[in-house]
Amino acid sequence: MDTLPQSMKAVVIDKHGDSSVLRLETQHPLPVMNETDVLVKVDYAGVNFVDTYQRSGLYPVKLPLQVGREGAGTIVDIGSNVPPSYGLQVGNRVAVFTQGTTAEYVSAPAESVMVLPRSVSTEQGAAIMLQGLTAWTIVQDAHKVEQGQTILIQAAAGGTGGMLVQMCKHLGATVIGTVSTPKKAEIAKKHGCDHVILYKDNDVQEEVMRITSTKGCHAVLSGVGEATFAQDLACTRRKGTLVSYGNSSGAVSSFRVLDLSKKNVRLVRPTLANYITERDEFVLRSQQLLDLVGSGVVRPELGGEYRLGEVAQAQDDLTTQKTTGKLLINIQT
Fold first, then answer.
1. What's the mean pLDDT in 251-278?
2. How far apart are CA 99 and CA 110, in angstroms?
3. pLDDT, position 251
4. Half-sphere exposure of 211 (CA within 13 A, CB side)
5. DSSP per residue over 199-249, as a string?
């Protein structure tokens, strides 16, 4: 093992609030490893809406908090009780799903670490461990997408939305995507959308009913939350599934369970962690995802790269819809 520094750079929050509460510490203590952890030198960290939910207090977290939920880099140390069956070694390029990745080093539970194959770059590894796994578990576990289904994907040009489009097309579905601008419409089409709706110019429900001959969609996949929830439900067909997986516009607050009975709609509000709690679940879905990325079936679109001192700007750009694709923090620049 190479000699490690005494301290590191890391982005932390000490209180809840807007992006101004994000603070870059240049002399932050190195993580303390547990015997079942691996220590990873982080090259790239992903930027996600969950980071903003933790920062604002929507998702309760213990403060102070080292921010970031996914990343990729190189293993520099391994805990004494990491099972050999995990196949993790010092020097491995890995992707990690753990808290605190927006830092030069992170100590990650070994069960949430996957070795990256040569066919997947470090940047791609950092881009897929949260959004990619979220998307893949949505189309496998929240709603099993099958050949011949029609799926509505809200925010189809975004990081998660773009991968959902590609995955649904791979699984044989007809995909309707919503976007805010003509530029984003082109991106959604490139991902594979069969139909694209500009939601600022058109009534999404009317367009969906026109496209589906008034039947609606077998599933609606939406990370928007409050702003589109009523519309999402209206666009779901009889016996269909509404997967509400995010809160980019705010958490859903006005909903009656009885409303599901109008069309016997199944409502799912998943979190990624509950689909991959066990190591075998994590390995299964992660390996499937890495295979999809490595073969080019799923191509994470990198929408922007920021320095460690620009995390606040990255989060603001994400929440104000100024970007498309996946945003990354380049830790080592």
1. 94
2. 13
3. 86
4. 25
5. TTTS-HHHHHHHHTTT--EEEEEE---GGGHHHHHHHEEEEEEEEE---TT
What is the C-alpha separation between 189 and 58, in angstroms, rounded?
33
Structure tokens at 66: 């080292």
φ, ψ of residue 107 in degrees (nearest 5):
-95, 115
Q: What's the rounded Cα separation, in Å, for the pair 185 and 307?
A: 28
CA angle 25–30–34, rounded 5-degree value: 140
Sign of CA dihedral 258, 261, 262, 268: positive
Element (H, E) at 175: strand 174-179
Q: What value does the CA radius of gyration of the chain take, rounded to a whole number of Å?
A: 20
**Residue pLDDT, tens place only, 14-44:** 999 999 999 999 999 999 999 999 999 999 9
Q: What pairs with residue 94 in β-bridges? A: 73, 115
